[in-house]
Amino acid sequence: MTDNQTSSTPRWVRKLLIPALIGGVAGFAASAGMMEFIDSSAVGGLGLSATVAALVGIVYVVIGFGVAFGSASPQVGAKFLNVEDADELREQKKVLGLSGVAMLVWGVALVALALAAPDGPVPQAVALAVGLAGLGIGTGLSIQVYRASDELMLAVNLEGGALSYGLVFAVVGGWAMLAHLGYTAAPAPLDLLSLFYVLVLVASFIAIGRRGMLTIR
């Protein structure tokens, strides 16, 4: 594509529509693949909690892989990540790369736990080892991200953490309250893990959105 063709393409198409389509297709394909695997003879189906956890985990894997790949290849990543240009990705390469890998291993950990026996094909000891390793490695990487972040990213991280706490307290606490009073069933352990994953992701999007980082760059 020539420079003239590139400049004639509206910015919202290049920086919003195309990345959204790529992300949507990747997420749908990964989720569909996971559902097909769950329904296959290798697994034989899972309960609702495990199925939701597996889908949440695979979304983390897709997002984490996209961020890690985009930061490792700035010229390519600038085409689908919401950054000004490849130079911005190069400046944030360490932070984004570590963040992407952390999300990826967290996603793998949740998928392994969702596929654990007795319902799934993964032995419980293996699922526990993968789960603990994923959570531990991801946490270690997130600490490195915190230390490597600039002032803006530090503020985003702190705000995201505060929002995560509030959302977890409201949603999980509210569910626990209703379950205690007999208005609904108590959450299963995997439900709690899935909620933690989802609410942290929601809080992160809110935090970066409040800083104007979701606007078209």
Give a verbal description of the structure.
This protein has 217 residues and is an all-alpha fold. The chain has two domains: 146 residues, no CATH class; 68 residues, no CATH class. It contains nine helices and no strands. Helix 2 crosses helix 3, helix 3 packs antiparallel against helix 6 and helix 8 packs antiparallel against helix 9. It is globular. Keywords: Membrane, Transmembrane, Transmembrane helix.
Properties at a glance:
217 residues, single chain, 78% helix, mainly alpha, globular
Q: How many structural domains?
A: 2
What sequence of helices (H) and strands (E) makes up the elements?
HHHHHHHHH
Shape: globular
- Number of helical runs? 9
**Total DSSP E strands:** 0
Q: What's a quick, concise take on this entry?
A:
The chain has 217 residues and is mainly α. It has nine helices and no strands.
List the helices and strands and how they pair.
Layout lengths: L2 H6 L2 H29 L8 H25 L1 H4 L8 H6 L1 H22 L9 H25 L2 H30 L8 H22 L7
Helix pairs in contact: 2-3, 3-6, 3-9, 6-7, 8-9
Keywords: Membrane, Transmembrane, Transmembrane helix
